[in-house]
Amino acid sequence: xxxxxxxxxxRENPNTIFxxxxxxxxxxxFKKGSPFLLMHCTLPELVYYEPKGKVFLPQxxxxxxLLKGFNKQSTDDLNSATRQFEAYQTHxxxxxxxxxxxxxxxxxxxxxxxxxxxxxxxxxEYYEYPEFDYVYDIINHYAxxxxxxxxxxxxxxEEILIPLQAAYNSSIKKHPIESVEKSVLEQAEAKYQHLYxxxxxxxxxxxxxxKSKFKGFNQSLNGGASIxxxxxxxxxxxxxxxxxxxxxxxxxxxxxxxxCLGYSVTSSYKxxxxxSKELPNYHFYLLVLNSEHRQNIVPELQALIKKKFxxxxxxxxxxHRSQYLRNQTVNQKHFVNAVVRNGLEVYNNxxxxxxxxxxxxxxxxxxxxxxxxxxxxxxxxxxxxxxxEQPIILNILMQQAVQQMAVGLIGLFMGYHPNIYSTxxxxxxxxxxxxxxxxxxxxxxxxxxxxxxxxxxxxxKHKNIGQETIEDxxxxxxxxxxxxxxxxxxxxxxxxxxxxxxxxxxx
Length: 507
What we know:
The chain is α+β, with helices and mostly antiparallel strands. Helices cover 56% and strands 8% of the residues. Strands 2, 3, 5, 6 and 7 form a five-stranded mixed sheet that branches. Helix 4 (63-93) runs antiparallel to helix 8 (182-217), helix 5 (97-120) crosses helix 6 (132-142) and helix 5 (97-120) crosses helix 7. The longest helix is centred in the last third of the chain and has 37 residues, at 470-506. The chain is elongated. The protein starts with a helix and ends with a helix.
């Protein structure tokens, strides 16, 4: 059935190459680091997924272990050819012309078989050793430049290959082997050496490309602050999730456009396998441009989406009324335009599409510098006021300091000014800036300490004094103080970088 289906596909799509592998082959291939599977069957290449099927998820991959498996696989492939060639050299030194001819032909054949495995995912465990003509045709299809080394359609190629093939066939049939001229063996040896060197080059180039490719898979955040200068990548599962999330948002509020400016991969599985049925969870950062006024849109939508997908998808929403964006600051407009240009367009009203906003060519660096300086001065001021032994007052002062630090960082690194000042919300936005240290880890103590920042001035009217301890508040203060010291250095370096860019542009 599969054979008939593959023939039908090939017949109806003559310019497309199809390769069919069953789950057992794929499982073994990913485990061994198959070059073909790692090149063509990872998450970016996925175009359809049958629910409950297995899929390769690079973000859960130990890249070093995977590349080690690939190195072993490539070494085994290269060694199979090397052993045949070493046998040829031994026979030559012993003046065993017939055996040398058979070994040299086997070595050349082995090199072509390695190429075929590289290009088509051939796995010896599941197939008989392929015929020479079969692997030779594969190589000419995928790497026609290799024909320049050995072209069996030319007279020179025939004079080299035909005697070697005849000797090999005779040895298989246990017939007498005709001696091959030394000059022919020397030419064939040179062809082998050239082909072997090209095979090594293919492996090394692939290895470098794979390291680069998988480096991106293992990053915790895609997009975020980098949206200002880089396109946000996507994949099948991200696209599918955003379609579902978009439907919920559009059913909740009238929307002009929705853009994704970043996402992080999360998982509830402690030992997530790379080739698995357990799909990743995502946290998306969305810019929602709505066209109607409605109170509490962001917290209600974020809670609704979390509940709807049982925590599988969560969102942090940057929400703005589209008709008021033209009145925003220059830097805010630059941020919105960067998201429109480099983010993922989740939805754009076909009857009233959203486009980039007219804005000055350059970011307002003077505004950025003043805003950053003011926020850090206020944060320093709040921290300097911490001299009380009353935990709730201490916590309120720290909350104000953290909020000032957060909006300062978001404005400096992203050019964005939030219209929501919830501490938890601002800390989630800080995750969009990968250069920053974390104010909190995921430890139990840090989760408890982070709750102290939920304090606010209105709580003084109602909260019972004595529920918090000065010990926890003191630990929280030290965290805030250390965070302030670190980001002050990082932020000033970022300002220097932005100033250098401005000088280069003006020059």
